[in-house]
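User: Second chain of the day. Same drill as before.
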Amino acid sequence: MREDDVYLLPAGLVAGEQAAAAVIGGHGWPIADGALAFTSAGLIWREGGEAWIALAPYAELVNWAEAEGEEMARHVGRTVRRIGGKRRPWAGLSLERPRIMGVVNATPDSFSDGGRNLVAQTAIANALAMVESGADIIDVGGESTRPGAQPVPVDEEINRVLPIITALAEWNVTVSIDTRHAPVMEAAMAAGAKIINDVTALEGAGAVQVAAKTGAAVIVMHMQGQPQTMQADPRYACAPLEVYDYLAARVAACEAGGISRERIMVDPGIGFGKNLSHNAQILATLPLLHGLGCPVLLAASRKTFVSQLSQGEPPTQRLPGTLAAHLAGLNAGVQALRVHDVAETVQALKVWRALSAAG
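Assistant: Same format as last time:
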């Protein structure tokens, strides 16, 4: 078994006093130096074109790695340190608690709020209401990337988002620009945005260079294909591992381009080139992503898979299912949630934090 083919999936997650006791007793390890710890791990490896998993208590995992030899011990040790390492402040925000990102799409065709924020003053008012409700970040987008969406000219995208970003920056709101185009990124950062949220993981021409030059915090997301066709027939041999590998490669590319790892947040891209089974597999293995050593964003808000798992509700009626998915994400240790329903998510987060602290 080669170390490059071995992945660690933190399991047996506990919180509060239980987490502290597990770490102190040598029976567990922290998740991002926070309130959660894992007490066992899924050892995942590829063999014969398939992925296999074996579950072991944390202490046995360490002993196994050492018995496999120096290279495996080094690989497992490095991954464990990345899982447990403290996540530094990101975009000026401490990650000692999960952060809420509110969605403001200045588009006519976004899948859930399309047309709601086309007028800049309306978008600004809606964004400030989200901040008042507890949003830590406002994610402003001027081009829909829903399945089947058509591209928007760059100048039009800039015209849609710039007045909103400028106004919110004057209110000292932490703003994220949701775009895949380097000229939009650069204009948004000049207007006061602090974060670049890119569904193409900064693969576009000039994107890494703009992010590096401006000092932006970045969110790199996994997407199979392009928005126009990504849901036609997505296929994976093992969706969680392929998402992990892609994000690991993009983190490395960002670092090579001058963006430090502490500025990078990763997003598995729920609903972007993935069917119901793929989304479920990724959500069930979210702790795997902590091995990248980056904070993790979960953006499941009002996604189609919620409807597929329930009664076929339209986007605006998917709040209960969204909260279920996002609470599962919190239990997996994600550091940020991208949401349409801020007040409801903030309330759920407060209850989750209180119960976790009491563990």
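The two ends are 37 Å apart (CA to CA).

User: Great, on to the next one.
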